[in-house]
Amino acid sequence: MITAADLPVVARRRAAALAATLLVTGFAPMIAVAAPAPAQGMLLVASPDMRGTWFARSVILLIQHDESGTVGLVINRPTEMAPADMLPEVSGLANLRGKLYIGGPVERYGVMMLVRSDSPPDDGEHIFADVYASGSTELLDEVLRRKDAPARLRLYAGYAGWVPGQLDAEIRRGSWLVVPAERGYVFSSDPDEIWDLLAPASKPIIVRRNSPACLAPGAVAVGPATKPQLPDNPEIVTCIR
To answer: Are 31 and 167 in contact (CB under 8 A)?
Structure first.
């Protein structure tokens, strides 16, 4: 291995000057870190760039991801409907405190549930930790008999689905961030805040102040551009989209 002592004096001075420049300007060597892969029990967090689409601000729990395709449930889109409105034949839902969630745009009249269970239920698919997915009315009746049912149960109308390879391509394009699931997110009492907690930071861009990118809804000009190679021009700003 070559050490600093092996370098000529001039080379060492240049290296020291470069290091000082990096510290002052904020540039630093980047370390590549492998992103988590999509899998059952992971969360998909919609990129800010997906605004204007059906999945804008969505957080999705993957309940299947294999060679046959991908299935997930949007966990942060509650409706004003009660679960009993969707499943009136299940008498135990009449007294359930909670809302029906929109699980995705596919088969919106079908209902799937996520259940927290201390032991593996007969009709449940293990997703992560003590969380199981199921469409069984028998399991639903069993959970509804518990006093803590509201804290252990979420019901979803519809689901999100991808054909084989589709989700992986969307992740490569930057449409989704993949993060491990946690019970606190899936069973959150304030689902509207989940995306804000998990979403990747908005990307700063350097443009002219009157650029359409800075005039777009939600864009904020946060001050003069900070890259040292740009001229001192008040019309050049850093804009957060």
So the answer is: no
Which tens digits make up the pLDDT trace of 20-79?
433 333 433 444 445 689 999 999 999 999 999 999 999 999 999 999 999 999 999 999
Reduce the DSSP state of residue 169 to 3 states and report it: helix
User: How far apart are alpha carbons 101 and 87 in whole angstroms?
Assistant: 13
Supply the pTM of this predicted model: 0.71
E strand or H helix at 11, and its extent?
helix 9-25
Local structure of 178: helix, strand or coil = strand
Domain identity same for 178 and 231 = no
User: What pLDDT sits at residue 203?
Assistant: 52
Question: What does the pLDDT average to over 213-219?
Answer: 44
Confirm whether 8 is domain-assigned: no
What residues make up the domain containing 77? 42-198
Do 164 and 226 lie in one domain? The reply is no
The DSSP line for 201-226 is: PPPEEEEETT-HHHHSTT-EEEEE--
Task: State the Rg of the chain over Cα.
Answer: 24
Q: Residue 63 corresponds to which tokens in the numbers above?
A: 């309940």
Residue entry with tokens 């518990």: 146
Q: In this structure, what token pair is assigned to residue 140?
A: 């639903």
Helix (H, G, I), strand (E, B), or coil: what is residue 104? coil
Q: What is the per-residue pLDDT across 43-60, written as a single tens digit (0 to 9) for each? A: 999 999 999 999 999 999
Please check whether residue 74 is in contact with residue 44, taking contact to mean a CB–CB distance below 8 angstroms.
no
Take residue 134 and report the two structure tokens written for it: 């199921």
Same domain assignment for residues 87 and 191: yes
